[in-house]
Structure formats: C-alpha cells, structure tokens
Amino acid sequence: MFTDVMLARCEEIMRNVCADFEVELREFNGEHDHVHLLVHYPPKVALSKLVNSLKGVSARYLRQEYDTHVRKYLWGGHFWSGSYFAGSVGGAPISVLRQYIEQQSRPV
Predict the structure, then answer these.
(1) Rounded to two decimals, what is the model's pTM?
(2) pLDDT digit string (tens) for 5-39?
(3) For the chain, how many structural domains are there in total?
(4) H-assigned helices in the chain
C-alpha cells in the first residue's frame, strides 16, 4: 500500500519518534507492504516500547493523512500487523548493513 510519498512521510515520522526516545534511526527503506529500519539505541531503551511507539505513531499519522488510499489495504482495521522482526547486528560493519537496507526495493 505504500507509495514513495508515503514512505518518505513514514520515515519522517519514525525519525521523530526515534528522537523522542533518544535513539538514532541510521537507515530507513521500505517496500509496498513493510519497512526496514537500522536503529542504534542505548540499553536503557526497551525495544518493544520503541517498536510499539514507531508503529502506533506512524499508523495514526499515516491514516490521518492518507485515509482514502490506506483504508482499502488495512488488515482488519489495523495499519501494521502485530508482529515485527528485530535482529542484533553488533558485529556487522555499518557499511554492509546500510547497503542491505538501501538495496531493498521501493515501490514504483
């Protein structure tokens, strides 16, 4: 359901949420039905709370701003699914991680 414009807005929203948590969103990219984030966060941040806030705030704003487009794609009225994947990449070079995220295709 994401267009390039919606992905750009989603990135902006998620960067603001990360700033509120004192977290750095290092890379962002997305496809038509999901997004990829590379986030650097301190141990004091509970990952589940960060993810819930990223999903909740972005859903609220994107639904308000793109309601007519989004409505037909919602999963039972939900913007995001209840699941997410998080992996630790402490040993991988940042250049490799950035390359992976940048190479994820964006919708046309």
Answers:
(1) 0.83
(2) 999 999 999 999 999 999 999 999 998 889 999 99
(3) 1
(4) 4-20, 47-65, 67-70, 94-102
